[in-house]
Amino acid sequence: QAVMKKAVEHAPDALIPGGIADPLIARGDPLIGAPVSRVDGPLKVRGEARFAAEIPLAGMTYAALVYSTVPKGRIADIDTTAAEAAPGVVFVMTHRNAPKMNKVPVFLSKPKAAGGADLPVFQDDQVHWNGQPVAIVLAETQEQADHAKSLVRVTYETAEAVTSLAAAKARGSKTGVFQGEPLKVESGDAEAALVAAPFQVDAVYSTPRHSHNAIELHAATLAWDGDELRVHDAVQGVAHTAWSLAQVFGIREEQVHITSPFVGGGFGGKALWQHQVLAAAASKVSGRPVRIVLSREGVYRVVGGRTLTEQRVAIGAQADGRFDALIHTGLAVMTEHNNMPEPFIMPAKCLYGVGAFHLEVQAAQMDMIANTFMRAPGESVGSFGLESAIDELADRLGIDPIELRRRNEPAKDPTTGTPFSSRYLLEAYRAGAERFGWEARTLPRMRRDGEWLIGMGCATATYPYYRMPGGAARLTLTPDGRVHAEVAAHEMGMGTATVQSQLIAARLGVPLDQVTFDYADTKFPGVILAGGSQQTASIGRSIIAAQDALFADLLALAGEKSPLAGLKPDEVRARDGGLCSIADPSRFESYGALMGRTGRTAIQVEGKAPPPLELAHWSMHSYGAIFCEVRVSQVTGETRVNRLLGSFDCGRILNAKTATSQFRGGMIMGLGMALLEETQFDERNGRIMNPNLSDYHVAAHLDVPEIDVIWTDIPDPHAPAGARGIGEIGITGTAAAVANAVYNACGIRVRDLPITLDKLM
Ligand code: MOS
């Protein structure tokens, strides 16, 4: 919002309500939406895609980290002599011999800040969480480093730590601040309206900590060349990480060169954590290149996860279902050194038309690893509380839960009063209900198959449309009609390069195989985060800007003899490897002919995306309806998901194949959140007790049924290419849909995740 305010102040003329629609929205180009297979697919299937941990450097050393075993205090003594004498050890670094480094800029504190926390790294003897790195060992092989780290002896002077939720609450909480704004919305007297309403639900829903478990472990391979740092990293923001590392080492951002061509899953966790800082520092002192790959345990200790929440959701309603009051308040736990009070009120801000609201996140502090962003931070856990409460109210009122939502569908954004850019949530519900067979749903405990009780549930999914400032792109066109794009964006497996190639081919009127898309390199333009489900819009708008520059350059070459003579950039469009007049498409000249006239061998342009003014005019969100059927064993209490369907309204879908995977992946993560995922945190000492995939359960193949995915495909007139984000929405709504189905199956309402069998017996 702060960015928006500034943008409006600086460019009031740019505020054209309705904006200028992207011409691609109206075009029925067959490439848009086509289920094109990922361009990086063959490389990955053949094992030829080089990830950060697979880059070899001459003279490379391998790193291992030693983690603190106390939650707070100081390092009284650290003995590294045995480790230093171990075979193959090159260097052991602790706070005693680390170079001077500045604090890591914590995410959201500055536009390009990428750090998970703003703590100093190895600058003093202080311990801030149980698991904090206290030593880094470099050795000639990974095995030697792992052995040597076991020889480091640390003694601590412990200080009193806040490691239980009760202690954190006792210390007090205050309204969380997220992206510079307090997480609080109040309108009318919600408590009074709740009490006055004839029907109410008022319950507390809780969600546990979750840890990041991308398939690819966090990894970096790096080396210094004088004052220049070269990093092969696995990150979601190369520009952000380079700038932040430059701040830490007191150098210019151009002196840090990061590439990150393949990322094996990010989900918000692939940012700048201590491992890259420590590897770079140890490399600087030792003079040797370093490869650091966090172990699975290391990811739990060094990389933050999603925090726990306790949410009160209270709804007051009339007998016809209309809401008088909506209260969604509660607590999220964070640390003093990060910026992430899990904003679980986001869904309640936009989903229902209500007279009186009170939405607020209170943040309390604990001594733990800094919690961080994880796929749909806020929305995923917030939609569990909100959409469970809606289901409880529907049950109490005897109204079908979809009908109840329909009766409270707002005409405009209920908290800001802004019109929606495009919202077809009810259409998503209609289509989803029909395909899922929702009419077969019964009252609770009415369907049985042997020991299994069977039930259906649904819930709303939602995630905001964002477009962060800073987008830029470079295009190079050659006379043969080949287009090469360069953007500092990221491919974490979601299909970025494929979808952007499709869009560029459609925009420039060339076949798909004549487009190459290169990315994730700090030498390319753009400050683009693969986060907030906004990368596609951010790149898309940057490409439009570059295309405008390209058309202007091409027309400047046209001259008197060209069929395009006298046309202005907004009077032409691309087709068949050239430009034509929009008014008279027979006035056409190919790129080759245009460039040949002056003997140009290539045209290179750069475009900068304008500020995201669409967000000042419109309430923009992706929506979906999640449907779930479960069976619950009356013998063991075990829940199995029989069927899952997602019906989405996210604007135009740009690639049916990659989009389906994004939606499915999100829903699988939601299923895991509903039934399995929980970071177990020892409240006596702040230690994560299950830092591995055998004790921390993520959904595996046998947990996941066939997942059906459909969408409205209605373009959003205010988003580039008509497409809103799809990366995170799948996880939202899913946990509530599962919980609502469990209730429908067996009549037990579980309000604290995960829904394990002990809660159903
Ligand atoms: Mo996401 S949590 O915006 O990578």
From TrEMBL:
Q: Which Pfam families match?
A: Ald_Xan_dh_C, MoCoBD_1, MoCoBD_2
- Print the keywords alphabetically: Molybdenum, Oxidoreductase
Q: Where is the Aldehyde oxidase/xanthine dehydrogenase a/b hammerhead domain?
A: 46-160
Coiled-coil ranges (or none): none
Select a single GO molecular function from the record's annotations and give it.
Answer: oxidoreductase activity
The answer to whether UniProt assigns keyword Transmembrane helix to this entry is no
Recorded protein name is Xanthine dehydrogenase YagR molybdenum-binding subunit
